[in-house]
Structure formats: structure tokens, C-alpha cells
Design a protein that fits this description.
With about 500 residues, the chain is α/β, with parallel strands linked by helices. It has two domains: about 30-210, YjeF N-terminal domain (Rossmann fold, 3-Layer(aba) Sandwich), CATH 3.40.50.10260; about 230-485, Ribokinase (UDP-N-acetylmuramoyl-L-alanine:D-glutamate ligase), CATH 3.40.1190. The chain has 16 helices and 17 strands. It has helices at about 15-25, 30-50, 65-75, 95-100, 145-155, 210-215, 250-260, 270-280, 300-310, 325-335, 345-350, 365-370, 380-395, 430-440, 445-465, 475-485; strands at about 5, 55-60, 80-85, 110-115, 125-130, 160, 185-190, 200-205, 240, 265-270, 285-290, 310-315, 340, 360, 395-400, 405-410, 410-415. A ten-stranded mixed sheet has the order 1-17-16-15-14-13-12-9-10-11, sandwiched between helices. Helix 3 (about 65-75) runs parallel beside helix 4 (about 95-100), helix 9 (about 300-310) packs parallel to helix 10 (about 325-335) and helix 10 (about 325-335) crosses helix 11 (about 345-350). The longest helix is centred in the C-terminal third of the chain and has 23 residues, at about 445-465. It is elongated, with a radius of gyration of 27 Å. The two termini are about 40 Å apart. The structure holds ligand NAX and potassium ion. Ligand NAX binds near residues 34, 66, 138, 140 and 162. One of its GO terms (biological process) is nicotinamide nucleotide metabolic process.
Length: about 500
């Protein structure tokens, strides 16, 4: 057994939170439900901290952090509660927060909308709920929050922060100057960066985010690929595909998939016997031939030189199992330290050799067994453990392909459930290797492997809608591109 955990890790960054939100929604759990759970958890903490006659002030911003606190107020209807909204109700930024503000209309809590933060009068409360800003913060504290933060600081009330102290940036873990210092924090779902550095107890409230939202890749994961509009040529990555010999289609599919997955430049290095056929697949491919009918030891110097100029290398598609080809791959891996996807026959070399490369290996179950890791009959936790153990032994990220794909870097395990039985047709693995290669140029290996599996599976599901069990691998790269295009990347 290796020590691994499901999902995204114990502490979620700002970007992780966006991923989990969108995956949660895709699983049918609306954000409004999470807001209800968050507000309820916060209410329990307030009740625990307050004496029955205490005056409670809730200071709420216009985002969902404020929305959580409107829910809290509804749960504290029997106590002496005032809700101070920083701004006019019409300017509450989200529908769900606005709905929860509206739901307070008939409660006996007092609502005050504070148009000008200089007018914020807290009337000497015993407990303050700081719900001005949560994970939606950008930059330094601006008005009206900045003055309100000062007002909170100037009281000697017990301050309970909702999710994070208003001013803590969950992307960096840093607090903006003027962030109200909490006496305790009720954070939602998982700890955020920076909370453990605070001098206050932090309670993490379970708000009902499905485990699957983190465990399985979902549409939210695509959000990691959002790129600034001013990206330049080369930002999308330069990829080298090494393969071919017995087969021409495999490296061509990998290269086309890499282009469709957003790579800027893709060069294929293949034996001269197949270089023309590979080129025949598409004029967009840059194909460099090396002498002979197989990749072999004579070519390694050239491969090393090309690999070092690239952001990621995909090695294996169509390579074949010749002894000298495997030796060449082992030699190549021993001499490079960049990012590498090892597929097909290259998996054996990757499993056997010491390398400084950042490796992603993409075995199907047969290949996994070939490197000594049979998973016949394993259920999902056992599969996860086998993949995590392999990843940690190989010091690599492992993407085990199957009806459910399992991805691990040895520390964390995720699964991918997109895809269908029609994808057992030849060539889909090459498309996956190329897609992961392109993503590996711009993302960390765990993200690249997971997203690659998700995208290619989704592409396969679309192809199956058109072609049923007759889907063929060469359909998939276009769908990968289309899915990314629809997502806006
Ligand atoms: N994401 C989720 O699934 C859940 C989120 N929840 C809550 O939603 C919060 C995030 O909500 P939002 O994304 O709406 O964002 P926030 O409510 O954290 O903040 C957005 C508001 O703050 C303003 N703002 C941003 N930066 C500012 C600055 N530097 N100075 C002054 N004002 C600033 C914005 O104009 C906007 O009105 C979480 O912290 C949590 O409390 C919960 O409802 C539970 C579920
Ligand atoms: K807050």
C-alpha cells in the first residue's frame, strides 16, 4: 500500500475551488444547496460562540460570501441579529445571494443596507460575522470593504470569519493589509491556503460537496485551461513525437491530436520507411525522417538534440517492440530531463530505466501487466492503490487506461469516466498520448494526464453518437479540438 488520497488534495487553491464548483454543479448539486449548508454550519458556530442575550452583527458583502451569511441569519432568527449589507440590495452580485437576502424579509432579524461604508454603525456587538469577502477577492481591500474592515477591527467583539477572513486571497494564502483578524474561522468544504498560518482556530465544515466532484475529472477541470487572450505563438507548446516504424498511423494520430489539443508546433521523428505515409495523413505535420525501418540506437543523439528544444516529448506510438528500439528509448530517457509521455512499447523502457524526465506513462491493462502490475478483477479502490503504487515506484504519473481510467502521481488519485466501449478500436491510445503530450507542455503532469483522459473520452462519446460502435480513432482529434473550442480555449 502506498499513502495516497483521492482527489485534489487536502487544501484547495482558488483554481481548485472553481474546478470543484463546476464539477459539483455538473453532478446535479446546485450551488444554492451548498450555500444553505455553509450558512447553516456558520450559524452553528455563531450559536456556540454567543451567549443567549448577545448582540450579533453580520457584515455581508455582495457576493456569495455574503449570501452564506444571509442563510446564517435565517438560522439565528431567535437571537438578536442585525445584518449589514455593504451596498444596495439591487447590486447583490449573484442570484442565489439575492434570493437569500430576500428570504430574510419576513425573519425577525434586522436588515440594514449600508450605502456608504462610513455609515456602518455596528452598535457595540458581542459577535461579528465577517462575511464581506470570500474566495472571490481580487487585489487589495477596496471600499466599502476597507472602511468596514476597520470598523470591525475597532470593536472588541468576537470575530467569526465566513470561509476566510475578508482579505485573505485563497490563490496565494496572503492577507491584504487591513484584513479583519478573526477569533475563529468556519471554512467551507476544505481548508484554503493561508488559513493554517492564522492565529485562530479553523473549523472545516462539510457542506455536502460530492466526493465524486474531486475524485472524478469533470467539465470543471477544463477551467484549468483558460488562457489569457494575449497568449503568443509558442505559448501553446512545442511537441516532439517519436515513433513509427512498423506503423505509420500511430505517430500521425498522436501528432494530429497534439495539434488539436492546442500545441503550436508538432514535429514527428520517424524512420524513413514510414515518413512519407505519416506526412500523408496531414500537410500540417512536420515529419523528420531518420535512416532505416525502426527507431534505434543510432538515432538517439539526434532525438536528444530535438527533445531538449521541446516543451514535451511523446515517445512510443507505432514504435514496435524491436530490441534496439526499446534500447534507444531507454537511452533517450536516460539522457533527457524534460516532460515526456511514454506510451506503448516505450512504457517498458520507462519502467526499467532511471530518468530525470518528468514522466507520464499511459499503459492499458495489458501493458500494465507487462511491467509486472496485473490488476485483473480489481475494484476501484484496489485499482487506485495499484496505480498510486506504480506511480510512486516509477516516480512518474501513471494513467491506466480502461473502462474507468485511473490517474495518479503517487500522492493523489483521480478517475475518469468519459469514454465508451467503441474506443477499444485501434489508435485511440495514440490520440490520448498526443493529447496528453500537448497538455503536458502547459500543465503539470497530473492535470495533463487527467484532462487528456477526460477530453479524449468525451471526444469518443461524441464520435459514438455519430458512428456508434463504428467509431474510428481518426475522428477523435477533431472532436478534442471542438470540445476545447466550445469551452473557449
Ligand atoms: N464556490 C462554492 O461552491 C461555494 C461558495 N460559497 C461561498 O462563496 C464565496 C465566494 O463567493 P463569490 O465568488 O461570489 O465571491 P465573494 O463573495 O468572495 O466576493 C465577491 C464580491 O466581492 C467584491 N470584491 C472582490 N474583491 C474585492 C476587494 N479587493 N475589495 C472589495 N471588494 C471586492 C466583488 O466585487 C464581489 O461583489 C466563498 O468564499 C464561500 O463563502 C458557499 O456558498 C458554498 C459554496
Ligand atoms: K469572509
Amino acid at each position: 500500500m502506498s499513502a495516497w488520497t483521492w482527489g485534489l488534495g487536502e487544501t484547495l487553491t482558488g483554481q481548485d475551488i472553481g474546478v470543484v464548483d463546476a464539477n459539483t454543479a455538473a453532478l446535479g448539486v446546485a450551488q444554492m444547496q451548498l450555500m444553505e449548508s455553509s450558512g447553516h454550519a456558520l450559524a452553528r458556530a455563531v450559536r456556540a460562540a454567543a451567549a443567549p442575550d448577545d448582540r450579533i452583527a453580520i457584515v455581508a458583502g455582495r457576493g456569495n460570501n455574503g449570501g452564506d451569511a444571509f442563510v446564517t441569519a435565517r438560522f439565528l432568527d431567535d437571537l438578536d441579529v442585525r445584518v449589514h449589507l455593504l451596498g444596495r440590495p439591487e447590486t447583490i452580485g449573484t442570484e442565489i445571494a439575492r434570493a437569500n437576502w430576500g428570504a430574510l424579509a419576513t425573519a425577525s432579524v434586522e436588515r440594514r443596507a449600508v450605502g456608504d461604508s462610513r455609515d456602518l454603525a455596528l452598535d457595540d456587538p458581542d459577535v461579528i460575522v465577517d462575511a464581506m469577502l470570500g474566495t472571490g477577492i481580487t487585489g487589495e481591500l477596496r471600499e466599502p470593504v476597507a472602511s468596514a474592515a476597520q470598523t470591525i477591527q475597532d470593536t472588541d467583539a468576537t470575530v467569526i470569519a465566513a470561509d476566510v477572513p475578508s482579505g485573505l486571497d485563497a490563490a496565494t494564502g496572503d492577507c491584504a493589509p487591513g484584513t479583519p483578524v478573526p477569533d475563529r474561522v468556519v471554512t467551507f468544504h476544505r481548508p484554503k491556503p493561508g488559513l493554517s498560518a492564522l492565529d485562530a482556530p479553523v473549523e472545516t465544515a462539510d457542506i455536502g460537496v460530492p466526493a465524486e466532484a474531486e475524485r472524478a475529472l469533470g467539465p470543471g477541470d477544463l477551467g484549468r485551461l483558460d488562457r489569457p487572450a494575449d497568449s503568443h505563438k509558442g505559448d501553446g507548446g512545442r511537441i516532439l513525437v517519436v515513433g513509427g516504424g512498423p506503423y505509420a498511423g500511430a505517430p500521425a494520430l498522436a501528432a494530429l491530436a497534439a495539434l488539436r489539443a492546442g500545441a503550436d508546433l508538432v514535429r514527428v521523428v520517424a524512420p524513413e520507411s514510414v515518413a512519407d505515409s505519416i506526412q500523408g495523413y496531414a500537410p500540417d505535420l512536420i515529419v523528420e525522417s531518420v535512416p532505416g525501418e525502426r527507431i534505434g540506437s543510432d538515432h538517439v543523439d539526434r532525438l536528444v538534440a530535438l527533445a531538449t528544444e521541446r516543451d514535451a516529448v511523446v515517445v512510443g506510438p507505432g514504435l514496435g517492440g524491436a530490441e534496439d528500439s526499446r534500447a534507444a528509448v531507454a537511452d533517450l530517457l536516460g539522457r533527457i530531463d524534460g516532460r515526456v509521455v511514454a506510451d506503448a512499447e516505450a512504457i517498458d523502457a520507462a519502467a526499467a530505466v532511471e530518468t530525470d524526465a518528468d514522466l507520464v506513462v499511459t499503459p492499458h491493462r495489458g501493458e500494465f501487466a507487462r511491467v509486472g502490475r496485473s490488476v485483473d478483477g480489481a475494484d476501484e479502490p484496489a485499482l487506485a492503490d495499484a496505480v498510486a503504487t506504480a506511480a510512486s515506484d516509477l516516480d512518474a504519473t501513471v494513467l491506466l487506461k480502461g473502462p474507468t481510467d485511473v490517474i495518479s502521481n503517487g500522492e493523489r488519485v483521480r478517475v475518469n469516466r468519459t469514454g465508451n466501449a467503441g474506443m477499444t478500436v485501434g489508435g485511440t491510445g495514440d490520440v490520448l498520448a498526443g493529447t496528453v503530450g500537448a497538455l503536458l507542455a502547459v500543465e503539470d503532469p497530473m492535470v495533463a494526464a487527467g484532462l487528456g483522459a477526460f477530453l479524449v473520452g468525451r471526444a469518443g462519446d461524441r464520435a459514438a453518437e455519430r458512428s456508434g460502435r463504428g467509431l474510428i480513432a481518426s475522428e477523435l482529434p477533431d472532436d478534442v479540438g471542438a470540445i476545447l473550442g466550445e469551452h473557449g480555449v
